[in-house]
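In response to the reviewer comment on reproducibility (Comment 2.3), we provide here a single inverse folding case reported in full, input and output, so that an independent group could reproduce the run without further information from us. The structure tokens appear first.
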């Protein structure tokens, strides 16, 4: 199957982008694996004709907005993001109308429609920089309330007013899970994703995106880490850094929507060029501003 995927990839001039929460077998065929920021940068840069996005719907949609002339494929249409689905255009407009004349930042985990109504987009790895770049004393943030609150805690003098969305996978990680694992592994450092609840974040030694967590673990002299994010990150850390020990904070930290794809789905995506993701051109025209502005600020 791997050989067939690699052959089709070459024949069709396709590129495979994979998020670090995907089933690890996907890495065998992926051109780029990483966090949301890295993958959107790669989607904007690629000269391929086809982008196969092994991730969730909003990621493929973002890739299509950034590369409108390319064919963007999502191998399994069931791959949604529960957080992104927590706010639609109408709900965002209502949220904005309650707080007029305040710039709006949307997390990349949002629909194209929502992105089209925001001033700037962000990911977990650049959210602090993006909010700060606005130079405003108050900022609206949607849909992740926990990422928004964490950003606020990192900046002095900026009020972040958050929409009440959240990631169900990260909220399944409880502070007790960290406390229990810390009792068993007192030397371990706790690395957490900012989508976690603030009571979890308070117990963390480092907070960052999926790639941020992986880079921290690689560079640290410590040998043990408690990982408070999705299972895929632990699997990759265990594969790449065999001299270190990684402790999954909770068996519940799995995003079911990130796990639909297997090699067979990637093969079918390439073979039948399915499932093509399109974005309404009017929405895309507005949404691209918030994404490109983010990429510019990110550098
Ligand atoms: P990052 O990959 O940007 O850390 O985001 C995590 C996530 O939840 C993607 O859906
Ligand atoms: Fe969405 Fe959470 Fe899954 Fe990421 S981990 S895709 S935010 S539901």
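Designed residues, in position order:
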């Amino acid at each position: 199957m791997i050989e067939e995927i690699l052959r089709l990839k070459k024949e069709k001039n396709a590129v495979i982008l994979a998020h670090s929460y995907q089933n690890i077998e996907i890495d065998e065929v992926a051109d780029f694996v990483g966090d949301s920021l890295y993958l959107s940068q790669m989607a904007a840069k690629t000269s391929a004709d086809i982008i196969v996005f092994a991730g969730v719907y909003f990621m493929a949609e973002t890739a299509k907005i950034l590369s409108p002339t390319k064919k963007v494929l999502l191998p399994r249409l069931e791959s949604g993001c529960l957080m992104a689905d927590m706010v639609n255009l109408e709900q965002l407009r209502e949220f904005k109308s309650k707080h007029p004349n305040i710039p709006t930042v949307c997390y990349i985990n949002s629909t194209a429609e929502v992105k089209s109504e925001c001033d700037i987009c962000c990911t977990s790895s650049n959210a602090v920089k993006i909010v700060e770049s606005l130079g405003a004393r108050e900022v609206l943030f949607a849909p992740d309330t926990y990422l928004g609150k964490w950003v606020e805690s990192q900046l002095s003098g900026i009020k972040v007013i958050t929409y009440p969305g959240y990631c169900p996978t990260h909220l399944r990680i409880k502070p007790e899970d960290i406390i229990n694992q810390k009792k068993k592994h007192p030397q371990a450092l706790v690395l957490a994703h900012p989508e976690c609840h603030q009571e979890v974040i308070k117990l963390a030694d480092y907070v960052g995106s999926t790639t941020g967590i992986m880079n921290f673990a690689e560079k640290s002299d410590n040998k043990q880490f408690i990982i408070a994010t999705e299972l895929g990150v632990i699997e990759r850390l265990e594969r790449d850094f065999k001299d270190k020990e990684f402790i999954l904070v909770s068996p519940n930290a799995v995003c079911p929507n990130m796990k639909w794809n297997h090699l067979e789905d990637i093969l079918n995506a390439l073979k039948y060029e399915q499932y093509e993701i399109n974005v309404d051109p009017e929405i895309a025209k507005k949404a691209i501003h918030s994404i490109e502005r983010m990429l510019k600020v990110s550098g």
